[in-house]
Amino acid sequence: MKNDIEVRLSYKFGDKKRNIRVSGEFDDENISLCAAVTEKNIIARIVSRIPVEIVKFSVTLPYVFDTDDKIFLNGWQSNTECCERDAFSKKSVISSASQRLAAQGDYSFKKYPDAKGAYHGWSYAYIRNDLTYKLFCSLNEKTGFTAITFDVKNSAVILEKETEGLVIDGEYSLMDAAIYEGSEDEEFSAWFTSLDVKRTSAEPMRGYTTKYSYYMDFDEQALDEDLSKISTEDYELYLIDEGYETAAGDWTFAETEKFPSAMKSAVDRIHKKGFKAGV
Fold first, then answer.
1. Is residue 186 within a helix (H) or strand (E), and if so which, with residue range?
2. Which residues pair with 26 in a beta bridge?
3. pLDDT of residue 1
4. Of 25, 150, 176, 219, which has fewest CB within 10 angstroms of its CB?
5. Residue 196: CB partners within 8 Å, gap ≥ 6?
């Protein structure tokens, strides 16, 4: 990688704050930081001598986007809009559909740029030019989620560790990420191998989810209306997402007012129509 890589750390100790730009290794009276950035890896380790709060850690890589590039950035869990798009797309950063998800996605805590040309995602993202992919991916999210930004306008890829409220006292892994380039199968296989994730033997299937049609407004009547409209020629799986539960985040019990016949009856009706059922 070129020397115009930028590694930045901001941390607090006591009532003081220190902003530093790192080139390889850094030492002061409070911390030691080692940041190694190559064409294939980003590894950053910190050792604190006193308790310190990590405010921000980021690595900025130079990258000149091509007009034929397509980009994809993984969303925040399943609640953030994410799709492959043209790198120089003039589409608004936040669509009306995304606004509907604002209470559940990352829109409430992650600042979205006002200008077009900068897009962010979490944990992994890729740039595709024809059949060649360049994958930027985290190898460790246990120490904090990794935000990845494609800043097309300023020709940069930025990886930033989510560290709000993180206080460390001792050794800590700030970032462990990889960069792979090749075909789609090659790069994702390399990532999964690094994570020791075995390739699934399950075959892909086409599915319908209630999420984006109903959000939380889903009940037995909506289920029956769906099953009267959709066909097994188009979908193999019917997935009940949100709306059935007694409270958001508690997926164990169905709300009896919405599903008076209970979930077993709902699943039986899905099966009767020839679909596999999912919750």
1. helix 184-194
2. 33
3. 47
4. 25
5. none
Q: What pLDDT, on a 0 to 100 scale, did the predictor assign at position 78?
A: 60
Report the distance separating Cα 212 and Cα 209, nearest Å.
Answer: 7
pLDDT of residue 115: 63
Amino acid at 145: F
Dump strand ranges (E) for the chain: 6-13, 16-22, 25-27, 31-37, 41-48, 52-62, 70-73, 85-86, 118-122, 124-129, 132-138, 146-151, 156-161, 166-168, 171-182, 207-209, 237-239, 245-247, 250-254, 276-278
Total-model pTM: 0.77
Q: For residue 189, which amino acid is it?
A: S
First to last CA, the chain: 45
Residue linked to tokens 């730009």: 21
Closest Cα to residue 161, out of 138, 178, 184? 138
Cα distance between residue 77 and residue 80, in whole Å: 7
**Residue ranges of the chain with pLDDT lower than 50?**
1-2, 92-102
Positive or negative torsion for Cα 42, 165, 192, 86: negative
The helix/strand/coil state of 41 is strand
What's the rounded Cα separation, in Å, for the pair 37 and 45? 12
Q: How far apart are CA 272 and CA 274, in angstroms?
A: 5
pLDDT of 12:
97
Backbone angles phi, psi at 211, to 5 degrees: -50, -55
How crowded is residue 255: how many other Cβ atoms within 10 Å of its Cβ?
14
Looking from the CA of 74 toward its CB, the CA atoms found within 13 Å total 14
What is the amino acid identity at position 100?
R
